[in-house]
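Box 3.1. Reading complex inputs
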Amino acid sequence: MPTPFKEFDIPDDWPPDDVVQWMNATLREPGVKSIEFYREPGNLVVRIWFVKTAPAS
Amino acid sequence: MPDLTRTAPWALVLCAVLAGCTTTKEDQLQNVARDWALVIRASQVIPVYPLTEDLRPGDIFLVETPLQEKKQYEGNGFLRLDQHLHRLHGLDFYDFYQGSHGIKDASVKPPIHWQFPDANEDADEEEGVATGWAIAPRAAFPTYTFNVNRGAGANIALPVSGVPVGLSLMQTDSASGTITLADVYTYGISLHELSDMVKTWAEGHRILLRQIRTAAGREVYIRVVSRVYLTGRVVVNMSNTRAFEAAGKAGAAEDVTLPPHQPPAGVPGATPERAVAPSAAENAARIVEVEKARTKAIQDVLDKMPGGAVKIVQASARTVTLNETFERPLVVGFLGFDFPVRESGDLGPPLSTRARLGGAAARVGALTDAQEEYVILRQAVEGSDVNAKEAIYDAVAKEIGDTFLTEYEKSKTAGDGTTIAFTSAKTGWLVGKSPQHVHEFELYNALLKAWREAQ
């Protein structure tokens, strides 16, 4: 099954400017539908939603 | 402090009037440079001040840390390029321009064949190729509007400028105007080629760079010019915004002998032959005659000024147009890339000079210049056929290795297409990396290499 989304932990010491730069670039990546940030106990998580694609043959 | 005596008179003039009233001469001169720089920066080009003919793609300068330089850029409006380390020769303009613009073979080195056509005379005779700036790549800057209020700021530029003379021509203390950089040219070279040559040069001068870095005791950069913009002619048009009967004289006009003012008939002091009221036609003819004489007198003064080919195109009490043509086009701005010098003397990856000066703070939604280039390249890869695209992405994943390759293969195995597999690998690989541009550039280079090999 194609992956609907991927999640990554955001390091606490990642400089905010780099986070913003990464986010801007990610939103322009082919196949990316949207990204979400949410905080789990202990860490910040980013979820990248991909557009639906047909399974690779 | 810039060498103002070598600066184009019109630039001084415009900047002086833009500067408005200031307190000290030093402040005024700084404002001259700053306001001129702001005009050029509005076109997303880094200004050069004073204007110079001697700046080319491949020029390498030593520059300060971002914070110090940003402060200078915001304070003065321009950057000093006073530590010229090297000039790269042998750039392949022929390949970059594919033989166009008179670059008919690899032996032609811009801008020399545009600057000095005679230098290529022998080659021209063989091939019949025209040379000179007329065949150079063209560019255009927007027309800029400014407002003038004569005061201390305007007066300082009078001995070396033409536009305040325009104020005198119109006999006004208030005017608005436009400046047009006409006959604008540009040429440059790709970052890819520059990057390779800069790194080769740096490897041969690692000891020098390490010494510079050690002596500085802080982060330093080398700046490489990749593109320059030149102008061959400047047109300044001013309009009188106030009906003003000037009683005083303006600066250089002190040397100008204007035809004496004739009081209207019947007024004490009128000459006897004007005892009879002139007709409207006579009045009109006389006004034209006076204006012609005034224009000619001021043009005579301008012709004697050093360094200026300033011509009054037209002048009246309402408008004045000045036209300055340079003997050869001068560089007004440039684009370039900055390479950080590491403590070892090695160079880090390049970053657009303009982006670096634009501020360290990233803005939501905005891509850096390097990211924009990546997006364009990625779109090109996406436009390839399925097999070529997969081959390119596979090659990049292997080149980067590390978690990038792991995630890419995992995503492909899960049934994602290569596009999403690559995107997933890239975004995950970059999470937590700092500074982002360093790693982005590594990926960009790998993608560009794979893309070229696939062509």
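In summary: Residues 366-454 of chain B form one domain.
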